[in-house]
Amino acid sequence: MKIVFYFTTLLLFYIGISSTSAQALIVLESGVVFTGYNNVSIPGDKGTLFSFKDDLIPRTEPFYRIRLNYTLKSRHLFSLLYAPLETKSEGSVANDIFFQGKIFPANSPILGTYKFNSYRFTYRYDIVKKEKIEFGLGFTAKIRDASIALSSGQLEATKTNVGFVPIINFRLKWNVNDRFGLLLDGDALAAPQGRAEDVLIAATYKLSENIDIRAGYRILEGGADNNQVYNFTLFHYATLGFSYTFLNQ
Questions:
Q1: Is the pLDDT of residue 154 over 60?
Q2: Does residue 249 belong to any structural domain of this protein?
C-alpha cells in the first residue's frame, strides 16, 4: 500500500502543476492468463530445477490490470499501473525437489503458487503524433512484489522478492480510420542480470468521444539467473480492455 500511495502522490503532483491542456484517462484490462513456461530453481546454484508447467499442471487464471494516465500538452504522458498476477500449479514429481532449504519428497502431492505483482510509474514522450500514426518512447520505474511457494501437506517453503527494475516503455498506434486502430504497447529491457518484457498487441475501437474498447494478446516474459534464484517465465494473456477519457470542460 505504501508503494501505491507514493505513486499516487507523485501523479497528483504532476496534475497539480499541469496546464489546462492536460487530459486524464483510466484503463481497465481483464481476461485470462495461460502459463507458457515457468522454470524454477531456488537457490539458483543448488536447488532442484523443476517446471510449474511441465512437472506440475498449471491452472488457467483470470487477471485484471488498472492504469491511470495523465497527458500534458498532448505529448507528455505520466502513468501509473497496478498489475497483479498469481497462478497455481499442482501435481507430483518423480524425484525429490530441494527448494528454499527444504526437501519435497518424490511422488507427494505438491501445490505451487507463483505471484508476480507489478507497480509501475511511466513517463513517455510522443515523438510522432499524427492523424494516422502515433509513436512514443519513455521510461518505466517498476517495482515487483514476487513470491514462489511450494506446499505439500504440512511442508511449506516460500521465496519472496521485492525489487526495483528500470524498463524502456514504447507505444505505437496505427489509426486505421476514425473508429478502428491497431496498438502495440509495452515495457521491455534485457541486461546481464536478467530480462523483462510485457507487450500488448490489440485492435482498438472508439465507441464515443471518450470511450474506447480493445481486444488482443499480451505476452509477459522474463527472469533472472543468479546464486539465489533461477526463474524464467512466459505467460500468455487473452485480454479485453476498456478506457475512459475525462474530457476537459
A1: yes
A2: no
